[in-house]
TrEMBL record:
<feature type="transmembrane region" description="Helical">
    <location>
        <begin position="310"/>
        <end position="336"/>
    </location>
</feature>
<keyword id="KW-0813">Transport</keyword>
<dbReference type="InterPro" id="IPR004685">
    <property type="entry name" value="Brnchd-chn_aa_trnsp_Livcs"/>
</dbReference>
<protein>
    <recommendedName>
        <fullName>Branched-chain amino acid transport system carrier protein</fullName>
    </recommendedName>
</protein>
<comment type="similarity">
    <text>Belongs to the branched chain amino acid transporter family.</text>
</comment>
<feature type="transmembrane region" description="Helical">
    <location>
        <begin position="104"/>
        <end position="126"/>
    </location>
</feature>
<feature type="transmembrane region" description="Helical">
    <location>
        <begin position="401"/>
        <end position="418"/>
    </location>
</feature>
<comment type="function">
    <text>Component of the transport system for branched-chain amino acids.</text>
</comment>
<feature type="transmembrane region" description="Helical">
    <location>
        <begin position="374"/>
        <end position="394"/>
    </location>
</feature>
<feature type="transmembrane region" description="Helical">
    <location>
        <begin position="34"/>
        <end position="56"/>
    </location>
</feature>
<keyword id="KW-1133">Transmembrane helix</keyword>
<keyword id="KW-0029">Amino-acid transport</keyword>
<feature type="transmembrane region" description="Helical">
    <location>
        <begin position="348"/>
        <end position="368"/>
    </location>
</feature>
<feature type="transmembrane region" description="Helical">
    <location>
        <begin position="224"/>
        <end position="244"/>
    </location>
</feature>
<feature type="transmembrane region" description="Helical">
    <location>
        <begin position="68"/>
        <end position="92"/>
    </location>
</feature>
<dbReference type="Pfam" id="PF05525">
    <property type="entry name" value="Branch_AA_trans"/>
</dbReference>
<keyword id="KW-0472">Membrane</keyword>
Length: 479
């Protein structure tokens, strides 16, 4: 009996002892302290906190007026909530946007990824960020003078030149700079927000234009312009790697950590965007209606703090803008070097910088107008991909379902993009106005669902093989 007890003791069984040791080590790794969870949550928050995405909520606030909370509930779905879902979808869909989009078709993956990276880089984000920095940090100081276009040209040359310099050789400088800037950025924005609550600039007015009716869906589509969901497809891998680097191996622990960090991030983003919307809504009496959120934020800072306000917020916006530009320029250049290796990373830097410089000098209003059709095309497709990955196992991952949903979504998304570009809007509304929610820019939801069910019927009739995604995010094909 004694021998039996000794034999079964873990110390008398090296294999069992090693197993227990490994399990205990995994448990220690998977149970990280809250301070580390907080750090990861703040890192994820910082990834989406830039100079560009704080300018849209103030405009929603100004235009929505007394309907601000309804409008912002829609805005927060696309501007905040879907960001986290996009990263989770990325982990389940293969870890990269190309692998995720290949579930539809390899050609679609190439087209979608190229449009995504171009929009993230020279077509939209780089010009938008540069223009926002100019609008907030420089324009209030020179707007009373002539030749403001010359000031924009000079500033954009210097700013994008600095972007090239910092992107030329990737070092830890930008990462460290970002870690220093984000807390300063948050503190000064909190100062601005608190001041706006203590001494409001004015009363909230009446809703304008599209915010009188269709308030929720208008806010929903305005959330597109933050572009954070599309950015999540590109930057999500960084977050995923950061969790892996901590030695966390359990799928359950990764999910738990992600949820905890995600809650911290969502709280931060929701608080920020609601506060920005409040500033916009309460600013009309003091500064009037403005053409873009950059003007709203800049003039609000002056109204709240006097001329010193523009120096404070201008400095911070400048620093956050440069880190945003560097991250986006590096990401798009690395991607195109990968798909076209004959052109080096540094050559792509120059090419995309020149394109971004040219577009920047059309001005912020023009940039937002030019980019709007592209975002109206890409965002519904991105949302459709997220929804498909989350429901993959419900329809056994049949490719026909992916294809049908994307075609159904894409057809109306193209029509919305054409309308936004002012290409035959009346004719499009006349012929396709029968689609529910079409006039509110959400008709793609209906046609996407129709495509989903058509694809499902086709898959069942053709007896397509299943492609199940397991708990580890790996695809298991079944005949």
């Amino acid at each position: 009996m004694q021998m039996t007890i000794l034999h079964n003791h873990p110390l008398e069984r090296p294999g069992r002892a090693l197993q227990l040791f490994n399990e205990r080590r995994k448990t220690m790794k998977n149970n990280i302290p809250f301070s580390q969870v907080l750090a990861i949550g703040l890192m994820l928050f910082a990834m989406f906190l830039g100079a560009g995405n704080v300018i849209f909520a103030p405009m929603v606030g100004q235009q929505a007026g007394s309907n601000i909370w309804v409008a912002m509930s829609g805005f927060l779905i696309t501007g905040v909530g879907l960001v986290l879902l996009a990263i989770v979808a990325l982990t389940r869909g293969g870890g990269t946007v190309e692998k995720l989009a290949q579930r539809v078709h390899p050609l679609f993956a190439i087209i979608f990824s190229v449009l995504l990276f171009l929009t993230l880089g020279p077509i939209y984000v780089i010009p938008r960020t540069t223009s926002v920095v100019y609008e907030i940090a420089i324009n209030p100081l020179v707007q009373a003078k002539s030749n403001t276009s010359l000031y924009l040209l000079i500033f954009s040359l210097l700013f994008i030149g600095l972007t090239i310099l910092l992107s030329w050789n990737t070092t830890k400088f930008v990462d460290r700079l970002g870690k220093m800037i984000t807390p300063i950025f948050v503190i000064l924005l909190i100062t601005l927000i608190v001041k706006s609550f203590i001494t409001p600039m004015g009363m909230i007015g009446q809703p304008q234009d599209d915010y009188v009716t269709g308030t929720f869906l208008t806010g929903f589509t305005q959330g597109y312009y933050t572009m954070d969901v599309l950015a999540a497809f590109v930057f999500g891998g960084i977050f995923i790697k950061s969790i892996s680097s901590l030695g966390i191996t359990s799928e359950k622990a990764v999910s738990a950590l992600f949820i905890k960090a995600g809650i911290i991030t969502m709280i931060g983003l929701v608080a920020l965007q609601l506060s920005m919307a409040w500033i916009g809504a309460s600013s009309v009496e003091a500064i009037g209606f403005k053409n873009n959120g950059g003007e709203v934020l800049a003039q609000s800072a002056i109204a709240l703090f006097g001329k010193s306000g523009i120096y404070i917020i201008g400095t911070v916006i400048f620093l956050t803008g440069i880190t945003t530009n560097v991250a986006c320029l590096a990401a798009v250049s690395e991607y195109f070097e990968k798909i076209i290796p004959s052109v080096s990373y540094k050559k792509w830097l120059i090419v995309f910088s020149i394109v971004g410089l040219v577009i920047t000098n059309f001005g912020l209003n023009t940039i937002l107008t030019l980019a709007s059709p592209i975002l109206l095309l890409l965002y519904p497709l991105a949302i459709a991909l997220i929804a498909l990955v989350f429901t993959n196992n419900l329809f056994n991952g049949h490719r026909s379902v992916y294809v049908g949903t994307v075609i159904g979504t894409g057809l109306v998304a193209v029509l919305d993009a054409l309308k936004d570009a002012n290409i035959a809007p009346e004719a499009i509304n006349h012929f396709f106005g029968f689609i529910p929610l079409f006039e509110n820019g959400a008709g793609w939801i209906i046609t996407g669902l129709i495509g989903f069910f058509i694809g499902l019927v086709a898959a069942k009739s053709r007896k397509e093989p299943a492609a199940i995604i397991n708990m580890s995010g790996q695809e298991i094909r079944k005949v």
